[in-house]
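User: We ran a pulldown and think these components assemble together. Before we commit to crystallization trials, I'd like a predicted model of the whole complex to look at. Sequences follow.
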Amino acid sequence: MTGATWGLVASTFAASFVEFVEALTIVLAMGVTRGWRSALAGTLAALVALTAFTAAAGYALSTWLPESLLQLVVGTLLLIFGLQWLRKAVLRSSGLKAMHDEEEEYATQTAAARQAARQSRFGIDTFAFVVSFKGVFLEGVEVVFVVITFGLSAANMPAAIGGAAAAGILVLLAGLILHRPLAAIPENALKYGVGLLLASFGAYWAVEGLGVFTHSGESLEWPGGDWAILALIACWLLISRVLVRYLPRLKPQSTHLKPETVR
Amino acid sequence: MKLIKGFAHFWYDFIIGDDWKIAAAVVAALALTLGVVLAGATAATAAIAGGVLLLLFFVVSVVIDVRS
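Assistant: Here's a predicted model for the assembly, 331 residues in total across the polymer chains.
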């Protein structure tokens, strides 16, 4: 494999790994508190729905959408995910938001699960099923978009899928062996890095995709071609470091932001 | 109806997340970039303008977040 392929695999691996860890925390919390049967049924249903969504979205994107519109749609979504991650990373690094902690997230989820009323259908606990389904599907759809963008950008879909699959298998094995949230993972640092990657690839694609509105309908070309992605990564990194340094000074003195733990 | 509401809520959660300002910043920056494209700028100029606008709008949305 070339260096570029390794980079692609590493990028999709890191991005997918974080998503799978979050999904695992939710499923573990439901399994332990409400029963494994319902949690696993929700997970299985989400995987089936995810497969159908991927097949339908993949077919629609590759068949009906011109390349530039595909870049605009997928790039915009990726940009929004990436900047949401980057925003949280910046706020956490500057001390304005509490660090994400899988143990704490697990405790919140289990507490909510214990308080929720028990309603069963066909022997399946509805709460555990729905929460597991939503958690796995939501994180899974993000993985699908990451794989599509990184894979198509590098024109190497198998490597992108391989990176995501490796992350999924690793998280699954760790969950099976440990039976607890993967709190030792440097999730905040990973999210910062992945946020930078998603924001950069997303910006690159979304702007290229605006070419769909021109007479030719063809994608816009960044100066420097693919090298512009590296320039974008450098720009997002620089601006995020500046924000980390100066944001605390902009916080109004009279109010105290309550550290908030977010996904 | 409940199903439609749930479906809409899922996509709102998925795209907007817990800070609507980020999605608004992205849409606004891309809309302005489209204006640059349609005004007849070269692809390279439009791409650079798009990158700069995205950075700028992101900074503004985070600053608003912290100051509010």
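The longest helix of chain B spans residues 43-67. That may be worth checking against your pulldown data before setting up trials.

User: Thanks, that helps.
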